[in-house]
Each structure stands twice: as C-alpha cells, then as structure tokens.
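Usage example:
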Amino acid sequence: MPLTLYQASIPVFIRGFTNLSAVLEKAKAHAAANNIDLATYVNARLAPDMYPLSGQVQSASDAAKFAAARLAAITAPSFADTETTFDELQARIAKTLDFLKTVSEEQINARAGGQVTLKIRGKEMTFDCEPYLLNFALPNFFFHVTTAYDVLRNQGVPLGKMDYLGSF
Amino acid sequence: MPLTLYQASIPVFIRGFTNLSAVLEKAKAHAAANNIDLATYVNARLAPDMYPLSGQVQSASDAAKFAAARLAAITAPSFADTETTFDELQARIAKTLDFLKTVSEEQINARAGGQVTLKIRGKEMTFDCEPYLLNFALPNFFFHVTTAYDVLRNQGVPLGKMDYLGSF
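Running the assembly step on the lines above writes:
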C-alpha cells in the first residue's frame, strides 16, 4: 500500500477532529461534575496574545478545510468565527468533518505533483502539494489541536495523550 | 513526485527539530535580556501532571527517533533523559538530528507496506508502516514540539506560529 496524498491528508484531519471532539466532551463532563462555567474554558488561553480555546478550534478547522480545498483545487466553505459555546465549537467541528468527507480520494490523488498557492504573512507563495501538506498543513493542524488540548490541561481538565491520539 | 514513506517522516522530523531548536534559542535570548533564570523555563509545565519543557523536548526526541528506527527496522540509539539545561536540551536535539540523518531514503522506502510493532499503554500492537506514521508517529511528534512551544509562550516568551512552522 503506497502512501497517497489523500491518505496523508483527509483521514488524518478527520481522525484529529474526531479525537478533539472527544476531548471537548471530556472537558464538558469535567466542568459539569465540578460546577465550572464552560465559558471559562472557551475563553481560556495560554498567553495574552494567543487565541483562546475557541480560536484554537476555529484555527484547526481553518487549517484542515483550507488544506483540503487547496489540495483538491476546490473552494473551501466559509465559516464565520462566531462560536462562543462548547455546543457551537462541536458544531464547527461537525461542519468541518462534513466538508472533509465530501472531498474524494480521486480529487486529492489527481493532484499529486500539482501545486498550491497561498498567502503566508501577506506574501503569496507557491508550493508543490506534497511539501505543502508535510511542511505547512499538517504541522499547522496539529499545532491548533494540541494547543486546544494544552489549554484544557492548563485549566485542570483530566486528559491524557491517548485522548489526543485516539484509540488504536 | 509521489509521496514516499521517507518524505513523510525523516525530513518532517528534521524540519520540526530545526524549528524547535530556533524556538529554544529565542527563549534563551529573551531570558538573557530579561534576567530570567533559564531553569524556570526548563522546569515550566502547563499542568502538574504534564512533562515540563525538558520532558517535552525529550519526548519529541523519543517520538522521532523511535518512529525513524521502527520505520527503518533498525535499533534506535539510547538517550538518557538527563537534560536539565538549555544547552543540554539543544545537544539532545542535535544528537537526535544526527541519528535521523543517518537513516536513508532507501532504508525507509524499502519498508513501504511493511509493519511495525510497538507497545501502547503496555499492549503490543502491530500497524502497517503508513498508518503508524500518520496516526501515531506524526501526531505524537507534533504534540511534544507544540507543547514545548506552548510552555514557552505560557512563560511569556515572545514567539509566533511561524517560529514553530519555520521559514518558507
């Protein structure tokens, strides 16, 4: 089974979001059991100039949806960053998953060896699809999923790395 | 240019560590400019039961070296987790990079479609090389690199996501 561009992108994002959704569920249960206002988690951040949990989930969604759209050479759906509750963050994840699942193996794999263009810090840059995925899209996605997890750990939510990695 | 098992592993780990090394350098410079004891950063953590910065760097090193060794079907070098200073953490990264650079494209790509066996939570599990890399090794590596970055951000070190992603 050779490695394909599809295999290294869409299912990885889907798995990451499925795990993140379960992490949010655990946080919600912990808050309920300990009389913690969920808004505390939604607005929690690790540094004053970092996104709070809500922004980390929105950024993970953007990272995955734009990567999928660029790789498939289609247009990404537009999601307003208006989520302020856990239920809305879960809905954002669900919408992102719905979009990711519409992107087919054929669409992505037909683009092997193709190029993507994106703006990084205002500068338009062109990459081959493979280094774009490996050097930008995947690290960027995992950055936001991990930071969402780290924000919740920093808030005292009992989680372990296997919650982030998911079951095997 | 099709995606290879090598391309999706060794150069990704090398790039991640090169960026992490630069992140540590920025933290060191910030500490020096602000009279902060570097030991504060080395021992800082986001939750009482999470590894401090030193453990995050050691875990990133282990994640990459074991992934490389399992994929290449060779033995990973043994590194004692004894680092307690920034210089020692940089040396750990350098040693890990040295090992990663000894693993050849041919060694890894010859293993496409092969299997790896590892213990997860004490349970021996066998995976095909590709899902092992995509579902376990890469997310695990980025988890520790991101958390090292998050610890430093939480300590007030001025960093941006491009420090983590590296230059393009």
